[in-house]
Amino acid sequence: MESAQTPISPDQSLRNRMREFYETSEAYKGLLNQHNHAYLKSYVDLVDLHTPPDEYTLDLGCGNGISSKMLHDRGRNVVGVDISPLFLKETKKWENDSLKYRVGDALNLDFESGQFGVVCSNELIEHTPDVETTLLEMIRVTRKGGRIVVAGPNLCSPIMPLLDFVQMVFGGNGRPIWAETKQQALQNALKNTNLYFTKRFGQLPQFLYREPDLEDQIIGGDADSTYIASPIDLEKFFRQHSLRIKKLCVGFGFKGKIMATFFPRTSLYISMVAEK
Known about the structure:
With 276 residues, the chain is α/β, with parallel strands linked by helices. It has 9 helices and 7 strands. The protein has one domain: 3-Layer(aba) Sandwich (Rossmann fold), CATH 3.40.50. Helices cover 37% and strands 16% of the residues. Strands 3-2-1-4-5-7-6 form a 7-stranded mixed sheet. The protein is globular.
């Protein structure tokens, strides 16, 4: 099996293959059906607590659309966008004057510049084959003074593979693709530690990509991710484009708050808020 962190160069072919996969995979849609209110609560809380509720909100990569509906139910005017009409198939019944859904590509958004006061995404960034273009589009459609919220797994965290290792030592299972054996967990912990220092002390963001698993036998665990997501890349990119980091990491629960306070760049989850 190819290493989970073998860098590749994103190209148009990968972009097309990923689009086709998300547009046609009923198995992946079934996986998304597990993203219910309980699963999405931390993301919706993150957006709700750190952005003004009266701002026009773009929920980018909204999947089955439930997160957009939850944001709307908290009083927001929301547009939910996803690349897959298959994923959005059930959302028509929720639409009204202040909740709309659109099929759209994060790499080429069909919105005017500065149209939104809030642009947010959950578990999108690791699935984009061109992170720089995606972030530039998010910045473009955000108004001056508006906020961008990015949430998702920190696939460069050295802490996660160490936790995988400990879990396997005590008889548990690792993660598919990333830590299937104790040896692989330790190897990825070392790789991620090296990546952390390289990224932390580098001048520019370093977007690293991997070949995603786009087979229809869905195994979960971000096997379909293509960007090896790191909050350090996002932090450097936003600062490079004159955005202010309002929250480097937001933790929920006792352990999450400890991680966010003392280890924001190695926390298991990306939860960043930037202001244009």
